[in-house]
Amino acid sequence: MLPTLTLHSPARLVLRPVLRLALAVPLGWSVAQGAAAAQCTGVAPAGTLSAARVAGTAPTHAEAGLYEGPVWIGDSLYFSDFTFGPGFPSRIQRLGPDGKVSTVIADSGSNGLAVDARGNIVAGTHKYKGVSRFALPGGKRTLVAGIYNGKVFNSPNDLAIAADGTIYFTDPAFQRDAAPGGQDGTYVYRVAPGGKVTVVERAIANPNGVALSPAGDILYVNGGGEHGVLRAYPIVRGVPGKGRDLVTGLAVPDGMTVDCQGNIYVTEHTAQRLRVFSPAGKALAVVRVDANITNAAFGGADGKTLYMTGAGAVWQIRLGLAGQPY
Questions:
Q1: Would strands 187-191 and 283-288 be described as parallel, antiparallel, or unpaired?
Q2: What gap in Å lies between CA 93 and CA 53, rounded to an integer?
Q3: For residue range 83-115, what is the model confidence (pLDDT) as tens digits?
Q4: The overall pTM is greater than 0.70
């Protein structure tokens, strides 16, 4: 995310039948979430809404930093908690069903988080300049992808995992100084199930949020800073094609998620808001928060609570639809 921004100034086109949603639900979801996504009943948010801070989630360190990468696993919300100090120290926290926050991995070096088919955390790890998997419980780390064309990555940021295990991730330069080395540009990458890494997009400056449509047939990427863009890429036989701009004029787009109808929830970092767009790019709703915002994920027992992370805060708001857990 954007480590130099002021902390308290004011991340889909569904071409396949809705019945296929059940096949596209990430296996890390709870049974209740999977059922909710498969049925996909309810109404998308509309108008201007406000989210509330979750009590007990204020930082326990004095250093400036951000919460990032919310992901719902089982009955809890996990998120990265990193500071702007040398190396951008980061840990993974857990907001449990009792409302208490505990540290799961004390030195994760992580930013964005996702959940794989076995319920483990997959993370963009700026400390290791690659994509890492943390086995739960315990947090044992393995490197999923660390090299492209003989070089480490810049600072892997956000991730999305397809039903076949393909991983898409963004690699901006926000935490490039966390460790030596990096790429010549800021790109979006695809990691095939066999481990081969290829470039999906080279033309978005500092790509940030990444997500998949419920059917897994559209890849979404945002980025571009103050004049940001949300771009959609059709996926054919598992490979993204040429992207097209779905939304332009975004204000520092950050992480994003998608609901079961395919609506896209994009956070705008310094604007302190999340905006909801239809799969056709039509603006549907705005959710306002009271600090800089980084990312969003659906969670709760029915998958209808939207959680958002940002500058020293976790927010939540109940919605009428279930959505993806990261």
A1: unpaired
A2: 16
A3: 999 999 999 999 999 999 999 999 999 999 999
A4: yes
